[in-house]
Design goal:
This protein has a five-stranded mixed β-sheet with strand order 2-1-3-4-5, with helices on both faces. It contains four helices and five strands, in the order αββαβαββα. It is globular. The protein is an alpha+beta fold. The protein has helices at about 10-20, 60-70, 105-115, 140, and strands at about 30-40, 45-50, 80-85, 120-125, 135. It has one domain (about 10-140): Cytidine Deaminase, domain 2, CATH 3.40.140.10. This is Cytidine deaminase.
Length: about 150
């Protein structure tokens, strides 16, 4: 990942999220989501949404990626997040040109990792197709967030 070029970074994370979204298991909503986490060392961890016939058991892409980082012992190393989503075409590829942002649950999950790492993470929200990217600080997406610090954990 090209962390030295701030204009390239969001596009590279969005590209990684798009690649992950191709692996989405979304037979019910037909809405594929991909997430990419930039780690301190420049590596990227990705995730795709995984739906379940018992809808409440479905997992969002951001949650999958963050759980993967946690399982690798790297929860505190996340420095940026990229996410894309779109309706799936007949071949299962995400489509659409409107950037999507994390759902409320995922904002809270991202906040957990952000607080553990002591960062206000940038969240790059892209579209399944095209160059449109909206960048937010996590604190903009989830103001006054509740997290580990509120429990005296850092």
């Amino acid at each position: 990942m090209n962390a030295t070029d701030p204009k390239a970074l969001p596009q590279e994370l969005i590209a990684a999220a798009r690649a992950a979204a191709r692996n989405a298991h979304a037979p019910y909503s037909r809405f594929a989501v991909g997430a990419a986490l930039l780690m301190q060392d420049g590596s990227v961890i990705t995730g795709a949404n995984f739906e379940n016939a018992s809808y409440g058991l479905s997992l969002c892409a951001e949650t999958v990626a963050i759980a993967t980082a946690s399982a690798a012992g790297r929860l505190r190393e996340i420095v940026a997040v990229g996410v894309i989503g779109g309706a799936m075409d007949a071949d299962g590829a995400p489509t659409g040109t409107t950037p999507v942002s994390p759902c409320g649950r995922c904002r809270q999950v991202i906040n957990e990792a952000a607080q553990m790492g002591g960062r206000d993470l940038p969240v790059h929200c892209g579209a399944a197709q095209g160059d449109a990217v909206r960048t937010y600080r996590l604190s903009e997406l989830l103001p006054d967030a509740f997290g580990p610090a509120d429990l005296g954990i850092s």
